[in-house]
Amino acid sequence: MRLERYTGTMYTNGVFSDIDDQIVCEDTFTLYVNNTQLLKMVASDDHLRELGAGFVICSHIADHIQNVTVCDDRIYVDAEVTGDFQEILESSGGAANHGTPRRVRSDQRVKPEKIFEVRSAIQSDAWLKTGALHASVLFYNGELAIRCEDIGRHNTVDKVVGHAVLNKLPLSDCIIGCTGRQPSGMVGKVANAGIPIIVSRAASTDRGIATAEETGITLVCFAREGRFTIYTHPERIIGSDGSGG
Amino acid sequence: MRLERYTGTMYTNGVFSDIDDQIVCEDTFTLYVNNTQLLKMVASDDHLRELGAGFVICSHIADHIQNVTVCDDRIYVDAEVTGDFQEILESSGGAANHGTPRRVRSDQRVKPEKIFEVRSAIQSDAWLKTGALHASVLFYNGELAIRCEDIGRHNTVDKVVGHAVLNKLPLSDCIIGCTGRQPSGMVGKVANAGIPIIVSRAASTDRGIATAEETGITLVCFAREGRFTIYTHPERIIGSDGSGG
Prior knowledge:
The structure is a homodimer of 245-residue chains. Chain A has 245 residues and is α+β, with helices and mostly antiparallel strands. In chain A, 25% of the residues lie in helices and 36% in strands.
């Protein structure tokens, strides 16, 4: 994650002073699928193979990735294309397949404590330093597998999914944690990846909730100190049926 | 701004309970420029004429708007197209013109107190209720002209700029205030609109700062209780040169 120093003028209670600030960097990459240019993405310059692999899976362009190579600012993904990709602009976030997301199948169940563990893992130094990043984490079999940061909320999901795909982690045994809001575009990405549980620090929208309901995702929002809200499929959170676990 | 009630399951310190939540709604609109379909946008369902007009101006597709009509989920903008629109995916935010944004010309200067007034005006009930909205405000001649909210950060900029354009407010006498971060895509929109001062509660990126520098925008970030940081063109903030105003 590239950060730069930049001198700004700070005003504090009537006094102007020079400050030396940490600024997050923004890069542009072009994504090629089977050597055809698909789109340009503004993103942070790490985990680029994961970004490409994850974008293709999360957009349901393909079910499997054959190869990903990165050359300068170009990301090349080779994959057998299965979905028909219909580009749509998402609410404050990238293009995605406008088709119906896939249904998630998973028997995974977790204790409430795991939700807080996922939520805590989202935090990072770079986020605290710059205040300008989003992050997603992927838990596999109950353990933190990866954390990815990016200036783009959607990119963080693509990156952690790409990590799982490139490392052949079964996504139905994963949980994703996100700093960002969960409109339908974000939930749809996770559904296409086949991850059954989303933990977000932030809110969802009506269509985000509807997408989670229809695709079988357990959508947990507002995961904060000591509390969270389950909007859909609470059966995966142990104790939510009043049985006490 | 459409909100819906939704029943969720809340977990608080070991106890599960049902709650009735306010959820923000997400809609999809198709933008036509001179009767040609340009793109689909996920947005909140208010200020749609403003959204269409503002998008066309902020993307530098045209310099003037002739007419905007909204029919169901379709926004039709008539305008003499001047720029060549090259779509690019923005960091967690819509498509924008990849061309160089225009240079802003304005003699506007403001006192530090005005920055806090702009920042205070950003807050809204819907934002507090749902935690899932962005907002932008437009000040014209020092007074609040409009506040627009949307699930999409970029849409809020388009909407307030659209308001100014449809009401013929001279944009060089305006200030824009935003809840959201300011990467190059956001700053570029404001530059294309010709607004000289951006006040954001949040951070920028390296390219966001570079775009503000090059286009002549005064970029003020982290506008919070009693403080803010000026990254570029501080000459528009009275007293920032140490003269004491």
